[in-house]
Amino acid sequence: MGDLAKIFKAYDVRGVVPDELDEPIAEAVGAAFVDVTGATSLVVTRDMRASGVALAGAFIRGATGRGADVIDTGLGSTDLLYYASGSLDLPGVMFTASHNPARYNGLKMCHAGAVPVGADTGLTAVRDRAAELLASELLAPGLEPGATRGSVTEKDLLQGYAAHLRGLVDLSAIRPLRVVVDAGNAMGGHTVPAVFDGLPIEVTPLFFELDGTFPNHEANPLEPENLVDLQRAVIETGADLGLAFDGDADRCWVIDERGRSVSPSAVTALVAARELAKHPGAKIIHNLITSQGVPEIVREHGGVPVRTRVGHSFIKAEMAATGAVFGGEHSAHYYFRDFWFADSGMLAAMHVLAALGEQASPLSEVVAAYSRYHASGEINSTVADQAAALTRVRETFGGRGSFDELDGLTVSGSGWWFNLRASNTEPLLRLNTEAADEGKMTAIRDEVLAVVRS
Q1: What region holds the Alpha-D-phosphohexomutase C-terminal domain (predicted)?
Q2: Cα-flanking dihedrals φ and ψ of residue 102, to 5°?
Q3: Are residues 210 and 322 both part of a single domain?
Q4: Smallest Cα–Cα separation from 380: which of 315, 438, 312, 445?
Q5: What's the rounded Cα separation, in Å, for the pair 34 and 169?
Q6: Radius of gyration of the chain (CA)
Q7: Distance separating alpha carbons of residues 23 and 351, to the nearest angstrom
Q8: Same domain for 246 and 297?
Q9: pLDDT digits (tens, 9 = 90+) for 353-380
Q10: How much is the average pLDDT of 205-229?
Q11: Alpha-carbon span 410 to 404, nearest angstrom
Q12: How many degrees, rounded to 5, is the angle at CA 196 between CA 192 and CA 199?
């Protein structure tokens, strides 16, 4: 039996199967989810991991054992779950470990309307209730005395999901585009064919076969080595662009026609400009380590940039509070008011395709207008005493720029800035730095790293 405190994270549940996450735990979490949320009906979806069938089945037993009816959508992406939760106005659970290796699985949960369930919005209570059920063995035989088991209905929502996205971004009139898509043997291989069906898009598929062992490479496009196959294929086929999805296909990485990565900040700025054309004066959310170019471009297009901490729960909460139409993160998560304030890598990809297909220039020229600064990318340093390292950095840069501590330490100087923040789960400090001049960015990056690692 696993340790629930270990696998329940700030935003989801994730652990090694079966050592940390097994069927009894999944069943207990299913019962606890119903007990905590009071749900009478809910939606369950899963990705392609081999353990997903058994774990989702156990969760469903736990949920129906508390009297809740379950709509089982079978295979789907995380944003398909959000579509299901939003369109049906039901709580939902997705079985996935996102980009983690094959031996992992987990759960992402949401309230009705795709409202996230995090540590402060029910996840801790679900953990504690599941622990009670496991300790007291109330789940055997699965029903409380006198309870009536809920029903299970299987429902395929893939076509409805695809139609909904096509209704949000119309690609029917774009010029024909050739696109290489690397699904990483994960859920993009399930959703891309449905979404792109009938559109003027010629897809060259890479690794569309669903295989939770990830035989070709991990489905994590944030790691450069996982983009090599896609970059090569874009160049070899003469494609207009490449798209890479992560394990549960809620994140999307973009490659231009030259085989070069398009930064998520540039994608954020591009999509923000398109959303502001539809919603003049609207608010756009960006986290504090996206490029400084994002708030600049938002203002230039008449919008109001809103800066937040890193993390999807902060983005979603701020979007809901402010009514923002769009939000973007450095991690290639993109959030849309028109999609229940939830994130969808597919929807962001469709905006990029629309921006490219509505004019004649190559993608590298299109995104050049949204790429203004040189960035280091996120660099991790293993640090035993994070607080001491942060103190050394404060002392080193005292008087050289403005400081703020919205999330870690951000220091802003003339034409440069950096953010240094601690990991919540590991003894790491994460550095992001950016400057108008590449030499300046490199110098600031190296100086901060030397202080941190001293």
Answers
A1: 378-450
A2: -60, -30
A3: no
A4: 445
A5: 35
A6: 22
A7: 40
A8: no
A9: 999 999 999 999 999 999 999 999 999 9
A10: 97
A11: 5
A12: 170
Asked if residue 23 and residue 140 are part of one domain, the reply reads yes
- Token pair recorded at residue 441: 């960015």
Please indicate, yes or no, whether residues 307 and 399 belong to a single structural domain of this protein: no
Q: How far is CA 50 from the centre of its chain?
A: 22
Q: How many domains does the chain have?
A: 4
Residue 139 has pLDDT above 80, yes or no: no
Ramachandran sector of residue 298 (left: φ over 0; alpha: ψ -120 to 50; beta: rest) = alpha
Domain CATH code at residue 167: 3.40.120.10
Which CATH number characterizes residue 402's domain?
3.30.310.50
Query: Which range marks the domain in which residue 433 is found?
Result: 374-452
Residue with tokens 């944030």: 222
| Type of residue at 266 | A
281-310 pLDDT, tens digit per residue, is: 999 999 999 999 999 999 999 999 999 998
Chosen domain end from 114, 130, 156:
156
CA 216, CA 133: separation in Å to the nearest integer? 40
Structure tokens, 296: 């600049």
Q: Tell whether the model's pLDDT for residue 141 goes beyond 80.
A: no
Total number of residues shown for the chain: 454
Q: Which of 223, 238, 258 is the last residue of a domain?
A: 258
Say yes or no: 123 and 186 in one domain.
no
Residues 93 and 27 in one domain: yes
Cis peptide before 176 (omega within 30 of 0): no
* Cα–Cα distance, 291 to 269 (Å, whole number): 9
* AA identity, residue 296: E
Query: Is the separation of the CB atoms in 40 and 64 below 8 Å?
Result: no
Beta strands 283-287 and 304-308, pairing class: parallel
Q: DSSP 3-state assignment of 341?
A: coil
**Same domain for 120 and 62?**
yes
> Half-sphere exposure (CA, 13 Å, Cβ side) for 299?
7
Phi-psi region of 18 (alpha: psi -120 to 50; beta: other; left: phi over 0): alpha
- H or E stretch including 388? helix 386-397
| pLDDT at residue 234 greater than cutoff 70 | yes
Is 1's pLDDT higher than 80?
no
Strands (DSSP E) contained in 360-415 are 374-375, 379-382, 402-404, 409-413
Q: Give SS3 for 324.
A: coil
If asked whether residues 9 and 152 sit together in one domain, one would say: yes
